[in-house]
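Usage

Read records sequentially. Each one opens with the input sequence:
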Amino acid sequence: MPDTISVRLPQADPAVYLEWMAYWRDIERRMIERPALEAFASRESAPFLRDPISDWISDTMAGGVIRQAGAARRGGADVVAPQITGDALVLRQAMKHIAARAEWLNRPGMYQAMDIEPPSPDVIALREWALDSITVQLAIHFSAPAPIVIPDVLAVR
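and closes with the structure output:
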């Protein structure tokens, strides 16, 4: 039975979430268009396509954020805090993929070589905030519960 977790991303302008996901879809599109680039990038970091974790990132994470941020924007909301639900072990592995990919993409010249615009400062800030938030939520989820020990001096007799 899967160990399901729901994580809440930070509250932010839906437009910034949508900008972040558009940036991610641009990367996926480039990888589809250039299979040799995708193979190289996947060897150097983590798979971008045709991998169960990559598919989960694209479908569940990016797709979920797009749906929730889009609905918030259409509803006139100033902020949205998307929720992602899934298997905790899959999410933990997805975070490793995302970190490896980000490190690879941030190498000098990668954006120019891929012919894509780098993310805006707002997207970079939101991405770091969201990934930090997910990391903390996963750490809490996977931590063993600490027993509460009442010192003898406080114990009711």
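Summary fields computed downstream for this record:
- The mean pLDDT is 92.
- The first helix runs from residue 14 to 33.
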